[in-house]
Amino acid sequence: MTETNALYKLSTLYMLSRVDFPISTNRLSFFLLKNNYTDYFTFQQGLGELLDDGYVSKTLIHGKTMYSVTDEGRNTIHMLKREISEDMRNDIDAYIRENKVPMHEDFAVQSHSYQLDLEHYISNLIIEENGTKILEMNIATSTADEADLICANWKESSEEIYPLLLSKLLKK
């Protein structure tokens, strides 16, 4: 393993150790890829090695693979975080501060569709905050494709729709 690959793995561990919720592969890799620190395949290889070595765990949450640092990974990054430059640590911390809500939404915004009867399909849309459902709604459609499209768009649109719904419903 090269020193550069070790740095990518340490930066991944550092990022996971700085949040208290699981992070998706996309959110986790975006920082390294955006800053041209590595390419996607090298990142994936490093993430796989972190999993194999027991520094990172993965769970499937609502059909999405999410990653968390293990206690062993937390101990390792505590001992080795100085191997990551202060500038890079500061950049990671800034990225987390700027993206904490969107990263957390990976965990909190959910959707699924199902067939209600022969003529109706339901899109079940949920927003959770700290494990509590703050919004749940069902939208009926006439086709499975429409229900699936609503579910697919929910993750991107929920951030706009929820405040709009509240402002309209709380209007006097």
Structure description:
The mean pLDDT is 86. Helix 1 crosses helix 3 and helix 1 packs across helix 4. By secondary structure, the protein is an alpha+beta fold. The chain is elongated and about 60 Å long. The strands form two sheets. A three-stranded antiparallel beta sheet has the order 1-3-2, with helices on both faces. Strands 4-5-6 form a three-stranded antiparallel beta sheet. Helices cover 56% and strands 23% of the residues.
What key phrases describe this protein's structure?
single chain, 172 residues, alpha+beta, three-stranded antiparallel beta sheet, 6 helices
What is the global morphology?
A: elongated
Mean pLDDT: 86
Over the alpha carbons, how many angstroms does the gyration radius reach? 19 Å
Cα(first) to Cα(last) distance is 63 Å
Strand percent estimate? 15-25%
Low-pLDDT residue intervals, each spanning 5 or more residues:
none
User: What helical percentage do the residues reach?
Assistant: 55-70%
Topology as a string of helices (H) and strands (E): HEHHEEHHEEEH
* Largest sheet features: 3 strands, antiparallel
Which class best fits the helix and strand makeup?
alpha+beta
Instruction: Give the strand tally.
Output: 6
Number of helices, counting only DSSP H or I runs of 4 residues or more: 6
Strand order of the largest sheet: 1-3-2
